[in-house]
Amino acid sequence: MDEILKQLQDGTISIEQAKEQLAPYENLGFAKVDHHRPKRQGFPEVIYGEGKTVEQIQAIIHAIKAKNNNILVTRVAKEKAAPILEVHPELHYDETARLIYWKREVAPANVGQGYIAVICAGTSDLEVAEEAAITAEVMGCNVRRIYDVGVAGIHRLLDNLEEIQHATVSIVVAGMEGALPSVVGGLVSHPLIAVPTSVGYGANFQGLSALLTMLNSCASGVSVVNIDNGFGGAYNAVLIDRLANKA
Amino acid sequence: MDEILKQLQDGTISIEQAKEQLAPYENLGFAKVDHHRPKRQGFPEVIYGEGKTVEQIQAIIHAIKAKNNNILVTRVAKEKAAPILEVHPELHYDETARLIYWKREVAPANVGQGYIAVICAGTSDLEVAEEAAITAEVMGCNVRRIYDVGVAGIHRLLDNLEEIQHATVSIVVAGMEGALPSVVGGLVSHPLIAVPTSVGYGANFQGLSALLTMLNSCASGVSVVNIDNGFGGAYNAVLIDRLANKA
Amino acid sequence: MDEILKQLQDGTISIEQAKEQLAPYENLGFAKVDHHRPKRQGFPEVIYGEGKTVEQIQAIIHAIKAKNNNILVTRVAKEKAAPILEVHPELHYDETARLIYWKREVAPANVGQGYIAVICAGTSDLEVAEEAAITAEVMGCNVRRIYDVGVAGIHRLLDNLEEIQHATVSIVVAGMEGALPSVVGGLVSHPLIAVPTSVGYGANFQGLSALLTMLNSCASGVSVVNIDNGFGGAYNAVLIDRLANKA
Amino acid sequence: MDEILKQLQDGTISIEQAKEQLAPYENLGFAKVDHHRPKRQGFPEVIYGEGKTVEQIQAIIHAIKAKNNNILVTRVAKEKAAPILEVHPELHYDETARLIYWKREVAPANVGQGYIAVICAGTSDLEVAEEAAITAEVMGCNVRRIYDVGVAGIHRLLDNLEEIQHATVSIVVAGMEGALPSVVGGLVSHPLIAVPTSVGYGANFQGLSALLTMLNSCASGVSVVNIDNGFGGAYNAVLIDRLANKA
Amino acid sequence: MDEILKQLQDGTISIEQAKEQLAPYENLGFAKVDHHRPKRQGFPEVIYGEGKTVEQIQAIIHAIKAKNNNILVTRVAKEKAAPILEVHPELHYDETARLIYWKREVAPANVGQGYIAVICAGTSDLEVAEEAAITAEVMGCNVRRIYDVGVAGIHRLLDNLEEIQHATVSIVVAGMEGALPSVVGGLVSHPLIAVPTSVGYGANFQGLSALLTMLNSCASGVSVVNIDNGFGGAYNAVLIDRLANKA
Amino acid sequence: MDEILKQLQDGTISIEQAKEQLAPYENLGFAKVDHHRPKRQGFPEVIYGEGKTVEQIQAIIHAIKAKNNNILVTRVAKEKAAPILEVHPELHYDETARLIYWKREVAPANVGQGYIAVICAGTSDLEVAEEAAITAEVMGCNVRRIYDVGVAGIHRLLDNLEEIQHATVSIVVAGMEGALPSVVGGLVSHPLIAVPTSVGYGANFQGLSALLTMLNSCASGVSVVNIDNGFGGAYNAVLIDRLANKA
Amino acid sequence: MDEILKQLQDGTISIEQAKEQLAPYENLGFAKVDHHRPKRQGFPEVIYGEGKTVEQIQAIIHAIKAKNNNILVTRVAKEKAAPILEVHPELHYDETARLIYWKREVAPANVGQGYIAVICAGTSDLEVAEEAAITAEVMGCNVRRIYDVGVAGIHRLLDNLEEIQHATVSIVVAGMEGALPSVVGGLVSHPLIAVPTSVGYGANFQGLSALLTMLNSCASGVSVVNIDNGFGGAYNAVLIDRLANKA
Amino acid sequence: MDEILKQLQDGTISIEQAKEQLAPYENLGFAKVDHHRPKRQGFPEVIYGEGKTVEQIQAIIHAIKAKNNNILVTRVAKEKAAPILEVHPELHYDETARLIYWKREVAPANVGQGYIAVICAGTSDLEVAEEAAITAEVMGCNVRRIYDVGVAGIHRLLDNLEEIQHATVSIVVAGMEGALPSVVGGLVSHPLIAVPTSVGYGANFQGLSALLTMLNSCASGVSVVNIDNGFGGAYNAVLIDRLANKA
């Protein structure tokens, strides 16, 4: 802000320009697309697909592509993805993760520079785990998937322990009783993002059980995102992974 | 019931006698003490101490002792226990477990006949774990205590695994996220009674978190009793232990 | 574990072999099938059918059958069962209980060796009760069904009391107010597994009412599993029944 | 209202008088005491003592006594009752029920005219049960107390069945799982008012468990009042008892 | 019971006969139909239609009709009612109330003997109000309907006050904030059964809001049944109306 | 009321007429249409469309139009609106806001007389925001729409601050975490009506999260209406706007 | 903001000065006192007393008084108020409302300019009602108190209707079932701020019942603030009252 | 693990030694102190003080000090801290943060190596914020405190924006509506740990409101820990800060 004010003071820019730079979005009427995010936050605005029509999503994609930015649309059902991909055939769609995405340039795999471990408890948690894994990959990180290692069969987890412990950061996805992050959290020394899922029935209450379990974890180093929020888990992990690799 | 009806038909007993045998309790006015329980359920009526006055508890103890039955009073605060023990000095009181008890005859330790494992996650769960352990002992079972083996330090649990696996039945006591029963449940082949405790804070909601975790356990063979109900956990375990030893 | 370590020390097995024996599952990619369960827990891994595709279920069945183990798949809707049975025509499917199952060898009925009483409150609880009853039968136990004996017509229950009291263990299934386990619990001296169902409306809150009732039961010897978890109720009862018959 | 309007039209009363008769209370500043209730509802205004100071209660008692009406003050702690009784020594105070009351004229016991059965599950429910019983007596009804007949010992209830069945209406008070009204409701043919109490712990959630149980009762003829609302249960029962005796 | 025991003692009846009379129901396998209810409770067993198949309902109707008893089936969707009425064309079906019913003999209207007021707050509560009104009529009572008199337009209620006040008992049905019973309760001197409905949205939480309002009513003489339980409200009111008319 | 009573006293009106004026609605049987509202409350009765059939809505519209009053029907799904508009082609329907409306006379835009700011957090909140905006316009107010200015991109909000600050009153619509009213509330000096929406997933619990946030707002001058209640938000704002312009 | 930027551009102010004007508060270390509020929001910062020590409150009072601004401290217990008043003897303290306040200049009573009606349901709601009433008075508005007019005695309310209807805005305070705002809302044509209180017991759940009732009010023109938030209710009403009088 | 197995195979260590190294804790009876944590997790075991007696805490401190490890005890009330400090006078106690701590060696301030921003919304959140800040400092990180910058006065936050944006990671502590993390999250590009506090009243429900707000944050890069868990927030932040500085 200092710099903009200085430019204004110097007469380098006009008041109009100064104001534009303080609120630097494109107004589509139904939405305001934030083009400053890549600069401000390191990644372009991600489109939350659930409450939006096909037309709205296409318009926002169009605006972002015009700036040659990466694209990520979350929570896109198969039926909704089809017409979007017809118009934008260069985009990718992953049915399990329900993600549409496009990367401007695929950087060479940054092998040896650390990776994010995406761990899930059961086969039913795959959808959320893949949302996390692909999001992290689209945002430029290495990912290792360790799936179906729930606590009721602790040997399956212990057998993969070394790979988990060597990660920069772990994303642990679990439904039902959601106990996996507590066990993993006690075995690793890096940050752990816990993602509760709505998998379960009865006293699970659509993921409330797993959410409460994770918030009450007696393992240190565990923080939590919303139920089924694979994207959110990945976003946090990516920020941490970048810090680790940048330094 | 058949037998009583037959006796009535034969004229061996009167209608009045038949009726008395169908509702065989002693009416103290404020309470009806069930003297048939030792015969019907294998253990005398247990006195829930929390809502009762010192006078009420003493009167019920008096009635039970008159029949020479074992005595167990749960949830007795220290202040309430003192005047009771003054009147009944032969009773025992355990401050941690908040139990008053007396056994008619202490049977010789039934070594080698199996035992109940009482397992707890943390030091703060001791009160509930001891309520369970002593209840089981008063009811005539062997007990092994395995304490402070919460899932965030899984090694402490694994180190005691063999002793746990050889038990007839396990009582697993845990607060906070309550994940311990799921892990133990996956490692043993005997029934497991899970007891959530109200230990924790915030999103623990007085034990709700641990309760939901245990109800949603993905490990098979886990059933649950009320929050902080160490007595209830023990009662179930004792019934199972008796079946195993009786047969 | 001692034995494996000893073999390793003796050079009888390699490190690789030792590690394999500590995590003895088959990795199907989307799932890790635990082939050690029959040895460790007395029954092969049960497949929770709800979150899985037909293809995934078939693949897991295939892996288990290759080991000649018993098979039990729970929560399989009729539409999903049909294509599975086409591929595996030797499997059985029960529409009410929504179970697919297969037993390697049907042992001769172990008449006279005790039985599990499966008791339900109303006609609407049949689905859960049958899930429990068939699970227990597939796992090798005798079962007696006592249905539609809810507490609002207590005579129906009392009329079947003798059969219930002679069981080794009872599974009591009830929705709405869920009061049945408390009444039965006061009349029997064996362990009782209570299964709340989501049957009801309004302040029932999808089974929460029955669940809370059962957790707060003033009858001793009652433990609880998740709402609608007929399988879980049976699993617990089977473990207890085995202990009683084994001893 | 018709009559008042007619009198106004006829000139028998003034507008001022007509208005006074439409809102016929005494304004004490902090409270408006309704002196028309005996006429309109058959009993004077009952004072809810909990949120009020000693001075406020005394002032309201004074206003009611000036009209020579019966007096009933609910939820008065012992410490609060003492100074009130000093000023109004003719009042009665019951410590268990926490009621202050006075009856203008004690009618001769209306023996043979029906009675209200006040039934409670356990000794800990006595406080609420007595609030109900004494309220009903102060309001002029016969009461029979049947206490400590919870469902976990069904014989104690069945033994008192006849007395319960002959009542005009039953008030059933229960905490913990609150199953008693369902069982009683299935055995009687008169209306039943269920009063949940906050007695219990853990997943009882201060009476929520018993409340939900009663609302979901599968027995017909059961209606429910607020948790611990012994007074409310009695008020409903008295209205019904009067209808039965009046006709 | 006394009488049966006496007959047994006298040898008038056999043990087998005595037992049958203590549990006098017809066992259809999936259900036990209680034929003693008309004698014991004054009305035959009512069939809760929601969890039952067409075949099950038809079988139960068949069993009840064989005893020439009245019939009432609640919560029957239109699609389910059609095949039932084809088989039993003499039955009536009301689409709004979702009731199937049949009365053995239609008694002459008992004009002048009192009536039940069925009051509802809004047009959206009609379904529940009609379930209550028709149930009461089928059970032999007079009913007066006062609809769409919610508290936000208090004049509509006051205009119908006289008719409400002259009723023997009121059933008050309301969704949303559910305030109507409190206002009516303050204006009448007879018992009032409050029926919350699930009508509303947002913080209504499927009727929870109306339910809590009614349980907390500061008006005396209000008791509550489950959300949407028009049948239950009517059953209570009918029991009260009978007491008032019988005496 | 004084005036009506005076007229009655003077004999100017009959008792019948006096009564009619105290409850001045039209009884359609299933509904009582309040024709006094324009006089009493400044706007005709608004029809809540959700629980009503097409026929019921048409009948109420017919009754209101007969009095030449404005019309507003809320929560009308597209399928339901079509047949209504066929019969009443002069009505307008807005698909996003799900409103049917008609204004007797469109007053000239009251430019310069203040306006209501309708602010929403995200594109998914549009439906509720438009319900609020159009309601306010139909009721005769100026409206400015400021959409998609959620707090996670605070610059978008600050850029529109001046227009918001100059409004007479603000309606702030937000789902998910619902933080927008707190931020806006700290920046304006006029009243703010907060409308939580059910937009979100997981721990949002159908709008509960946004509702609680708004009720706990640390900004002064924020009051709240029900979840998704755009109409209610507008109604409050219109009342305030009228007060500001009237004075 | 435009103006500040212009001054900066013109060189009238320095960057440092521009920044100070964008964040114009006094930093006390533990708190940042906002001295711009009188200008920005029309009233100085109000001090929420609950979480603060006596020393912190005194320091903030000192800072505000230095600017000669009005003072209002909410939620100050009697014990906490005493030492504060010793240091600042010119402040007033109201024990019922738990408010400390001081007005720089007491404006002449603005008689005839409209007033705020503060209405409460019962004597137990007085504390919250007085917090609202005094807050409004300190902020310069006329207030009329109408207390103890709960809906269970509707005549008391109707008798005060005229005074309520003539108010500019109403604050309606109610606990228990919280039905009063719905009834008042249907009788007035001005905005109504509903304040639920935590008065009640059992299923009241510390004010949740009243809160939900008010949010679901079927009366239009009702908005809601937090439980027991008399201050918040008043603040909203004052903003509205000012708009009405300003215009 | 590989290494230990290799040593075992080589005969370098015995089976007993191998086992000890797999569960390397000190058994105090009531607790098992984990001495391997500094090696495994980078920081010694932290003692949760709340459920423990003074004697238990002293014993654990003694065991940790014997290994010359750093010490951190959380949630120690003033009364409990005094006797502990008497025995261990070299320990520090912070009353606001309720922490006891000791650092083996105070490393020179690692100036210029990045810092953690601890941000809190209001003065009442200080306790939790200080628990976070001091924990992070004891664990070796630089901390900057930015307090009392809640969203209702957004200028206070924006004025400190630069310092916040330059942090490695932010801990944002807020009670009431808990909106601060969403606003900060939209302004920074580093990870943000949100800590809800139980500060508030009414519909805050002991911190539930703030917790839900944070879980539903529409800002990316926000993860959440338990209510009032300042320690947990710090622990996560420290892990991230180390990764950033290590690399």
Automatic annotation (TrEMBL), chains A, B, C, D, E, F, G, H:
Q: Which region is the signal sequence?
A: none
Q: What is this protein called?
A: NCAIR mutase (PurE)-related protein
- Cross-referenced InterPro entries: P2CMN_synthase_LarB, PurE_dom
Pfam families recorded for this chain?
AIRC
Q: Which GO terms describe its molecular function?
A: hydrolase activity
Biological processes annotated in GO:
'de novo' IMP biosynthetic process
Q: Which organism is it from?
A: Oceanobacillus polygoni
The domain of life for this entry's organism is Bacteria
Q: Where is the PurE domain?
A: 114-246
